[in-house]
């Protein structure tokens, strides 16, 4: 099973949300359903970046690295690189 680190972008205010999952479609549906306290305020969300990892530990490290950046310009450059 692969684990996917993802960045979502709010269509409401262009803010970012970073997480990881083994089922990206289900996770996006969760964020856009209003069930998450944080993401419900900024719905709807779209996927703007993904990366696959073979283990949960690798995905957690990557997620932690991305969250530590706390820099919109960094995220924009990362997203532009894959597009």
Automatic annotation (TrEMBL):
The keyword Transmembrane does not apply. Residues 1-77 form the GIY-YIG domain. Keywords: Endonuclease, Hydrolase, Nuclease. InterPro entries: GIY-YIG_endonuc, GIY-YIG_endonuc_sf, UPF0213_domain. Gene3D superfamilies: GIY-YIG endonuclease. One of its GO terms (molecular function) is endonuclease activity. The keyword Nuclease applies. It holds the Pfam family GIY-YIG. Belongs to the UPF0213 family. This is Putative endonuclease.
């Amino acid at each position: 099973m692969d684990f996917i680190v993802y960045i979502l972008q709010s269509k409401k205010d262009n803010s970012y949300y970073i997480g990881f999952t083994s089922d990206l479609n289900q996770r996006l549906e969760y964020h856009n359903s209003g069930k998450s306290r944080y993401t419900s305020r900024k719905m709807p969300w779209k996927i703007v970046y993904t990366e696959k990892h073979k283990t949960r530990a690798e995905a957690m490290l990557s997620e932690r690295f991305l969250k530590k950046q706390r820099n919109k310009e960094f995220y924009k450059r990362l997203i532009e690189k894959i597009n």
